[in-house]
Every structure is written in C-alpha cells, then in structure tokens.
Amino acid sequence: MKPPETDSRGLSAEKLAVRYDRRLPWILDGTTLQIPEGKITAMIGPNGSGKSTLLKTLARQLNPEAGRVILDGGDLRQLPVRELAHRLGILFQEHPVPGEILVEDLVRHGRYSHCGFLQGLSENDLEAIELALRLTDLTDLRHRPVSGLSGGQRQLVWIAMALAQQPQYLFLDEPTTFLDLSHQFELMELMVRLNREHGKTIVLVLHDLNLAARYADHLIVMQQGKIVAEGPPVSILTPARLREVFEIEAQIFHSDQGWLQCLPIGKVQH
Ligand SMILES: Nc1ncnc2c1ncn2[C@@H]1O[C@H](COP(=O)(O)OP(=O)(O)OP(=O)(O)O)[C@@H](O)[C@H]1O
Fold first, then answer.
1. CA pair distance 158, 93, nearest whole angstrom
2. 155 phi, psi to nearest 5 deg
3. Which positions fall inside the ABC transporter domain (predicted)?
4. What is the pLDDT of residues 52-99, one digit of tens each?
5. Is 259 in the pocket of ligand 1 (CB under 6 A)?
6. Closest atom, ligand 1, to C-alpha of 49
7. Nearest to residue 222, comparing CAs of 269, 255, 173, 266?
C-alpha cells in the first residue's frame, strides 16, 4: 500500500461534490468534514437531504465527482478492495438475500476479505464469526435460512456479517427501519457496546431524533444536500433548528433519567 500522504489519522472528507447525473443538481456541493474517531456519529435530516449519499461516498460506494475521502492520511480511492473491507463495514438499506443461504454462511462471507474464497477459515476467522453471532444474539438461529427470518432478524444477520469483517469503521444506513421499539433500543445498545467495548467508530443514518439524541456523540444535520450543523446532540437539537430543517414544532427537554428528548408537536404552520 502507498504510504499515507499526510500524518492525519481517521476518516475525513475534503470538498466533496456528487452528482447522480450531469443533468441533476450537485449534492454535497463542496462538503468538508471529519468523522470523530472512536465515537458514534448520526446523520439526520429530512427525506432527500443527502444523508445516504454522504454515507455512501464516505464508504466508497459512490465516487465523488470532485473532492476526496481521506482515511488515515491517504486517499480512500487508492485503498485495495480487500484492505477496504478490513477497514470499513457497511450496511445499506437494500440488500437482497442470496438464495437459501443459512445465517452462519452469510456471516462467514464477512471473513472472505481476510481469508479469500479458496482458503479455509483459520482459528481467527472462526472466532470472529462466533463473536459476531454472539454480539447480535444470532447463535441459536445460525442454521436457519436467512430468507425465513423476520425483517428485524435479517437486519441483525447483515450487521453480524459486517462485524465478522472486524472493521475499524461501521457505516449503517437507517439500521432501525424494520425493528419494533424494543429491538430499536437493543440495536442501539449493541452500537454503544461495539463503540465502547470494541473500539469501533460508528457512522449511521437515523430518522428517529430521540435515538439520535440519546445514543450519538456527534450529530451531522443535512438539508438540501448540505451539512447545515454539526456537534453534540445537546447543542444541535434546538426547537429553532428543528423548525428550520425539519419544519416541525418540537419540545426539547431532559427526561428524569437525564436523556435528551425530542417531543414533536406538529408541522410548522406557514
Ligand atoms: N440513484 C439516484 N439517482 C438520482 N438521484 C438520486 C439517486 N439517489 C438519490 N438521489 C437524489 O439525491 C438526493 C439525496 O438523496 P439521498 O438518498 O442521499 O437522501 P437521504 O437524506 O438519504 O433521503 P431519505 O431520508 O429519504 O433516505 C435526493 O434528491 C435524491 O432524489
């Protein structure tokens, strides 16, 4: 691998600009940002504000037309695919299930970037798979076909596959979508454990402002393809900003347990 171009550690982006088509407007027009290392970052914003586009660009699923993403001082585009899989674990919204594959086999796929398809799994690989199954509470379902699981259980299998890669960064686009409230909290508690106990830097798109307020260390607020605010939830989630960005009236307060809470009241009346 080429030596780093600078000394800076971590993941950042410089003057990113993305266009899905030359006839369409720019998204992320000149976006520069730094993902805080060892933290949970949540991207929030209305539909179509560019959250997924930014997440995909940071994870090299989309190539920016201008600017670059920098990982540990080097351009992310220069990173060999295998190395990329060791560094970044990705869970996006759409993921078709291949045939009748079993839970355990899909999770094993997370290890192929380490051992290759033709080589057998090492002790390390097997340990990583066991840990991923255990962390996601899937050990009892390991021999079940993925296609026969509920939406929420399937979501966990994809997360387990990403975990089996043992990446430094985890990117998740709306991971709570198919989950009931209890499983949403469970998933976010898992994110906290992966962050605090396993040292992962986590970047996720969330629609639920309460989950973002409670579990994220850092918020990135997007509106019309641009980052309009960044910082800790307590300074970012204000009634004025929710009015401006989400067009909602909301109360912001701390619960008896000390959690920052957002109570949406209704749409702003123009
Ligand atoms: N494949 C695509 N082709 C053309 N335009 C796209 C494509 N994907 C997204 N867009 C457009 O880019 C803009 C940003 O979309 P993006 O999916 O990043 O927003 P988002 O904030 O993640 O939205 P949501 O909350 O609805 O998932 C939108 O105007 C969207 O219509």
1. 10
2. -55, -40
3. 11-249
4. 999 999 999 999 999 999 999 999 999 998 889 889 999 887 677 777
5. no
6. 21
7. 173
**Cα 102 to middle of ligand 1, angstroms:** 32
Mean pLDDT of 222-238: 96
Burial (CB < 10 A; 0-12, 13-18, 19+), residue 22, is exposed
Report the separation in Å between the CA atom of 212 and the middle of ligand 1, taken as the mean of its atom positions: 20
Q: Tell me how far apart the alpha carbons of residues 143 and 211 are, in angstroms, rounded to a whole number.
A: 32
Please name the residue whose Cα sits nearest to atom 11 of ligand 1.
48
Residue at 39: amino acid letter: K
Give the atom of ligand 1 at the shortest distance from the alpha carbon of 50.
18
Distance CA 230, CA 143 (A): 43
The whole-angstrom separation of Cα 111 and Cα 128 is: 8
- Tell me the CA–centroid distance for residue 48 and ligand 1, in Å: 5
Share of the chain residues as helix, strand and coil, in percent rounded to the nearest 5: 35, 25, 35
Return the closest-CA partner of residue 170 out of 259, 265, 91.
91
Residue 146 DSSP code: G
Is-contact 262 210, C-beta < 8 A? Answer: yes
Evaluate: CB of 52 within 6 angstroms of ligand 1: yes
CA of 54 to the centre of ligand 1 (A): 10
Distance, CA of 68 to CA of 247 (rounded, Å): 32
How far does residue 190's CA lie from ligand 1's centre (Å)? 28
pTM (predicted TM-score): 0.91
What ipTM describes this predicted complex? 0.98
With both helix axes pointing from N to C terminus, report the angle between 123-135 and 151-164 in degrees, rounded to the nearest 10: 150
